[in-house]
C-alpha cells in the first residue's frame, strides 16, 4: 500500500470529547439516510489520536442507527495503530492511513481535530482526496472541538463539496454564541472578520442571544432555542431543532457561511 497521505498531528483526545458531534450524526436525517441505504455500512474515523476512545464511542453510538455498521479507525503513525489494536478489542478495526483512507470506500468519514492543524490552503486538497474515496452517497464530517468537547464546529460534505456548517455547544459553558469562533474549522476560522458571512452569522447570533436574555430564567437551553427562532425570523436559514436536545446546535447551509473572495 502507498504511504498514508497527511502529517502527524498532536493526537490529543479524551473520553466523550466528540459526544456532541456523535449525537448530531445519530439524529441527522441526511446522515441516517446515507447509513441506512448503504450497501456496505463502512465508517472511517480518521485521525483518532493517541488513544482510540472516541472511535470506540462512535462505533457504539452509530450502531443505534444500524447494528451492522463497520468502523475503521485510521492513524498515520504505526505506534498509534498498534496501541489502538491492543485497546480496541474486536468491535472496531484499526489501520494505518491518511486522507487516502487506506483505499477504503466508506459511506461516512469523521475527521475531527485533524485539518485544524494544517494550513488553510491544504483543506481543499484533503477534502478532495477523501471525497474521491467515498462510496456512492457518502459523507464527510470535518470538525474541531475544545479539549472537553463543550465547544464544537463541523462541516458536512459530500462528494461535490460542503453542504452545511454546524455549531454545537453546552449552552451552560458560553457567554455568547461567538465563543464558538475559536473552534471554527480551518476553512472558516481565518474568515471570521467583518464583511465575511461567518462573521455576519456569529454577530447576528450574539444579538439574538442578547435579545433572548429574558428566556434565561428558564435555562440556557431554552434561551438557545429562542435565539434560533430569532435568527430564523431574521432571514437566516437555520435548521429547526427536530427534538429537545441537551446541546445548543445551530446548523445552516454552507452557502450561508461560504467565504467570500477578497
CATH class of the largest domain: Alpha Beta
Radius of gyration: 18 Å
**In which range does the helix fraction lie?**
25-40%
Q: Could you tell me the CATH topology label of the largest domain.
A: Rossmann fold
- The class by helix and strand makeup works out as alpha/beta
**SSE pattern, N- to C-terminal:** HHEHEHEEHEEEHHHEH
Mind telling me the CATH superfamily name of the largest domain? Vaccinia Virus protein VP39
- Number of contiguous helices: 9
**Reading side by side through the largest sheet, how are the strands ordered?**
3-2-1-4-5-6-7-8
Number of domains: 2
From the spread of the alpha carbons, the general shape counts as globular
Overall number of strands: 8
Q: Please outline the major beta sheet.
A: 8 strands, mixed
Task: State the CATH architecture of the largest domain.
Answer: 3-Layer(aba) Sandwich
End-to-end separation:
41 Å
Low-confidence stretches: none
Question: What's the rounded overall pLDDT mean?
Answer: 93
Range of strand content: 15-25%
Amino acid at each position: 500500500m502507498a504511504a498514508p497521505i497527511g502529517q502527524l498531528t498532536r493526537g490529543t483526545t479524551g473520553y466523550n470529547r466528540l459526544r456532541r458531534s456523535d449525537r448530531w450524526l445519530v439524529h441527522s436525517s441526511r446522515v441516517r439516510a446515507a447509513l441506512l441505504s448503504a450497501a456496505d455500512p463502512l465508517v472511517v474515523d480518521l485521525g483518532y489520536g493517541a488513544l482510540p476512545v472516541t472511535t470506540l464511542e462512535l462505533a457504539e453510538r452509530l450502531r443505534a442507527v444500524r447494528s451492522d455498521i463497520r468502523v475503521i479507525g485510521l492513524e498515520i503513525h504505526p505506534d498509534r495503530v498498534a496501541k489502538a489494536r491492543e485497546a480496541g478489542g474486536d468491535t472496531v478495526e484499526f489501520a494505518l492511513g491518511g486522507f487516502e483512507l487506506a483505499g477504503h470506500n466508506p459511506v461516512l468519514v469523521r475527521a475531527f481535530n485533524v485539518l485544524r492543524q494544517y494550513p488553510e490552503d491544504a483543506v481543499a486538497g484533503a477534502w478532495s482526496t477523501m471525497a474521491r474515496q467515498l462510496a456512492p452517497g457518502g459523507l464527510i464530517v470535518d470538525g474541531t472541538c475544545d479539549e472537553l468537547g463543550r465547544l464544537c464546529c463541523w462541516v458536512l460534505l459530500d462528494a461535490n463539496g460542503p453542504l452545511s456548517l454546524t455549531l454545537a455547544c453546552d449552552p451552560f459553558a458560553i457567554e455568547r454564541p461567538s465563543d464558538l469562533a475559536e473552534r471554527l474549522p480551518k476553512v472558516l476560522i481565518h474568515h471570521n472578520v467583518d464583511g465575511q458571512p461567518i462573521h455576519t452569522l456569529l454577530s447576528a447570533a450574539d444579538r439574538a442571544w442578547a435579545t433572548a436574555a429574558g428566556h434565561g430564567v428558564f435555562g440556557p437551553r431554552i434561551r438557545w432555542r429562542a435565539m434560533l427562532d430569532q435568527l430564523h425570523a431574521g432571514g437566516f436559514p437555520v435548521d429547526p431543532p427536530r427534538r429537545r436536545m441537551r446541546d445548543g446546535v445551530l446548523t445552516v447551509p454552507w452557502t450561508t457561511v461560504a467565504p467570500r473572495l477578497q
